[in-house]
Each structure stands twice: as structure tokens, then as C-alpha cells.
Amino acid sequence: MEASIDFGDTFRKILKEIKEEADYKTIFVQRRHIEDCVDPSILQHFNAPTVIWDETHYGDILYDYGTHLLVILCLKTVDDGDMMHQLAESIHYMRTARILCIVNESLLLLDELKISKFFEMCAQLEMINILVLHRDSFIFEKYHSYKRFPNFALETHDISRNEGGRKWYPDRLKDFVGANLTAIPNFNTHRVFIEKAVDGNVDGNVELCGSLARFAQTFCEFINASLLYTGGELYDYFKIIDAMEMGHIDIGLDFDRCAYRGQSRVLEISRMSVVVPLNVVPPLSALSSVFLNRYTLLPFALQTVVLPFVISKFLQWINGRWQPIGIWRAVAFIGDTGLRSFLGQSLNLPHQQTIRIRFLFGLLLFGGMIIQTFFAANYARLQTFPPLRPKVVDYEDAMRKGFKIYTHSEEMIDFLAIDVIKQKYKSLFFEDLDKFQKPMKLLTDAGYLVDRISHEIFDQGSLKMVFNENLDITDMILLSYMVRNGSALKQPIDDFTDIVQESGLYKYWERNPCKRRRITASHGTYEDPSAVQLTVSDLHGVWQRSLRYNGSQMNAANAYKQTDYNIHRLNEGVLSPLPWAVALKGGGDEVSVHSGLHR
């Protein structure tokens, strides 16, 4: 069957409606031959820049044309899987691009099974926004598309209904309709960890905590999906990458280094460095280093030598006793003349050696008091809070001391380290997962390769280990959320990253890594997490009991007051005692206080 005469006009009308939904800057046409496009003349009337590739062209269109594309794929048959894979390589990670597929076959010659297999291949290639027009689609007013979430389903649409306002490309990544997204956490980043629940539930309940975990959990809520993660085995960065590339998982709860393309947008910035243990400096050594350094000796020399000499010569010049003298006489400033000038005494008095002796002993005594007070105060402080020094200061010092630096994977050095470290200092690094986990046990006998973000989270406030600027092995690292190359989730994750960064929500997750209330060692609290909180019904019962208690107290008080009032009236003769009370008393006038009263 030949294509309808108005195929080109109707097709251009569809392009106009698609552009009204979301503007595109360029039209990209992928085909084998020009005859595959049903009506070759439609390519001459595109009202936009057009890029046409045939089967001999192969590459990545990202470098030249960006993401504002409308992709038109011309196929001779729906069985042409090679062209589909070639298109997937061309658009690379732009899996959300709108793809309009023109198949030069008749709907009458195709069954839904073939069309369904075609869209299943599209789902495997992560092509979400794709619809198919056949050569006679405008005659039968039918076209096909599919939805991937929550489960694969073939869709057949009526072209005439689109004129009533239905979108050609609805946002299929806005609502995943409860679809399951699988993930693997990397517990080596310290942005993901497991915390035991403390809400009084059954033992064994755990919570996945950390800023990356909360990012994934909130993202799934944002797109109406469910997050499923695998536990048990400890996965590292490279195992998670392999699992994603093989399609076993959808996302990884880990960071990925930002590159030119493919990764999601920047989520955090860090540097890879070496954390080294700190040695405790003895108090005497610390005090010796305080006194015997250029910052201490220089002021001491200025105060004890230079300043008295300058003052004595200034006083001599004021009193008219200034005489140029040689260098050897100049250093004798602590002589009799210098001491008299310093003490403000007359220079005409006879020499008295006792003045010099008393002055020298006074200086020694005063200086000794200052030193003794300073030493006693600082020695007590240094015993309580001893100073800490890193075990090594740079890579050369580490080579001399035979210092070891552990990492959980030697490939991290080859992947991250600069050339100088790879060639000269690579012998310092050792791959040992057990040793690498020793900082968690506070066994600080070696260095450990970590990033600054991990150290800030895990060792916040710790005085056991510290970063050394001389041991950094990389410059600034831009970290993004780990997404599979060519995944359709990249664009939703990018949009969600912008939201949490601009709103400050991600910074809040860094400070509050868990949703539930919990007790940690670094932030102690006196609250008892096992205490049962009162409910509204409990408070209602307390209110009823307090009313009953207050009512009984009021009744007792009223009875006592009425009794006292009646006794008072009885004594005044206003009330008469009961007959049985008088009989008990032998007819006397006295009535017991506990007797019954009547009017």
C-alpha cells in the first residue's frame, strides 16, 4: 500500500503540535536510505535545523547538538534492531529525548506481537519517549507507544483524539506508579549506614541512614517509586559499577566522579587524601619546644638584653652623660651606670656594689617566679590535654619511617592518584580491607586512604586521626549520584538534585542522617528511648482520676465544714440532740461530738 497523499502535510502538523508541547532546537534524522522515510519530501520542509545520518555515520551527537532534539528514526521494518542500537549509541545518555519512529510498513501486514517486541527492545535500550507511525497510520488514525512503569504495556492511540488536547509525549518519568527501583549501598563511603531502630518495635528492625540513603528514599517518593536494596555482602565502588552496567540494579547508593557526560549533576565536592594517626607529645617535651623556638627566644632576648640597653643609653643621653664607646664597652650595659640609669638613681653617688647585686638577685627572683608560674600552669594543662602531632608530615617522611597506608582497593590509587604518587610513592599503599576498616575500631597504627567527606562524617570531633594537606593525592573531586550509563533515570535525578541543593534539603540530611530519633555516641542524651509515650486515651484516664480525687477532697472538706458548723449551733442551743444519743448519756445535756444531730 502506498503512503497517503497528505502524509507530509499531516506529519508536519504533528511536528508543530510536538513543538508546542516542548520546544526543540534541532531535528536529528537517523536512517539507512532516504526511501525508508515513507515520503522523502517531508525532510525538505522541516522548520528547524536538521541533521541527517545514514547507516555509514556513527558517533555521538552530544558534542555538537546538545539535548534539545527531536529524533526522527526512519525504519524499513520494525525488525531492524541494528538501527535501534545505532540510535542508542548516537543519543548516548539522552534517553528522555523525544523519538518519532516512521516505519515504512503497513499496519495491515503487522500484528501486535511484532510491534510489542519492538517496544520491548526500546525498553531494554532505555528509550522512554518513543512513538511509532506507519505508512498508513493516518488512514487508520492509529499510532503506537508504550509505558514502562510499573510494568511494560503496549499502547494504541487514536490520532483524532490528540486534536482534543492529549499530548503526543506525556511525561512518563514523573510518576513511576509504584515501580520497584533496585539499589546496592556502599557502606565504605560513610554516607550510607545501617542504624538499629529505637522506636520500641520488634528486635531486628533496621533503618538505612545517611545523606545518600535519604536522597534515594526521598527521590523514590518524589517519582512515586519503591526503593529495594540488597543487603548481606559488602559491596565496594567497582562491584556496584559492574552490577549497574550489567543491569542487575537501577541505581547505586554511592558517589561517582563527575565527567564530561553520563553522570548526574554535582551533589558534593571532596578531595581524596590520607588520614594519619596522631601521637601524644609528653608535657616536658611540649614545654621545651615552647621555650626553645625562635618565637619564644627572640622576645626573651629583646626584653632582657636589647630593651634594657636601649633604655640605659636613652637615660644617659637625657642626663648628658652620653659618650661614644666601643663595641666591647657597649655590651657592658648591666654595669653600675646601666643599673643606676635603669633604677633612676643619681650617677654622681659613690659606687655601691650592693645595688647591682640586689638588682640582679631581684631580676632572677622575679624571672623565676614568672617561669615557675608559667611552667606549673601549662604543665597541668598539658597533662590533662596533651598536644597531638601527626605521625608523618609528608610522603618523604613516610618513606623514611616505613609508614603504611591502607586502602580497600588498590585500583583506587590507579584511578585517582596523580602521576607522582603512582610512580614514586605507590609502595606506601597496601590493599587490605580488614586493615582499612581499622579506623572504625580506633586502631590507629597506620594511614588510611579516605575522602574528606567520609572523614568529616565518621570522625567528626575525633582526636585520633587527622588529615594532612601534604598527603592529598587528588585535587578537587566533583561527586555526583551514581547512575548507570544511558539510564533513563538520569534526567529525573538531575532535576531532583537541583531541588534538594537549592532548597538546602541535602545539607539538612547531612546533619540529620536518619529519619527516626536515635542515640549516638557523639551526641549524648538523657532521654530514655524505651519509655512508652502517653497517648490521648492515657491522658483521658489521668484527667478522670484527677477529677475523682479532687471531688472526693472537696466532699470531705464540705462534710468537715458542715459538721463543725452544726456543733457550733448545737452549743448555742439551736439544734437538739437525737433521742438515742441522749439515752446513751443517761438523759444528760452533754452530747458527744460524734453523735448524730438533727434539727
Structure description:
This protein has 599 residues and is an alpha/beta fold. It has five domains: 7-162, 3-Layer(aba) Sandwich (Rossmann fold), CATH 3.40.50; 179-271 and 482-511, D-Maltodextrin-Binding Protein, domain 2 (3-Layer(aba) Sandwich), CATH 3.40.190; 283-383, no CATH class; 390-475, no CATH class; 563-599, no CATH class. The strands form five sheets. The chain has a seven-stranded mixed beta sheet. Strands 14, 15, 16, 17, 18 and 19 form a six-stranded mixed beta sheet that branches. The chain is elongated and about 135 Å long. Mean pLDDT is 70; it is low at 517-532, 565-572 and 574-599. This is (Mediterranean fruit fly) hypothetical protein. The chain crosses the membrane at residues 359-380. Keywords: Membrane, Transmembrane, Transmembrane helix. It comes from Ceratitis capitata (Mediterranean fruit fly).
Short note summarizing the structure:
Keywords: Membrane, Transmembrane, Transmembrane helix. It comes from Ceratitis capitata (Mediterranean fruit fly). It is built from 22 helices and 22 strands.
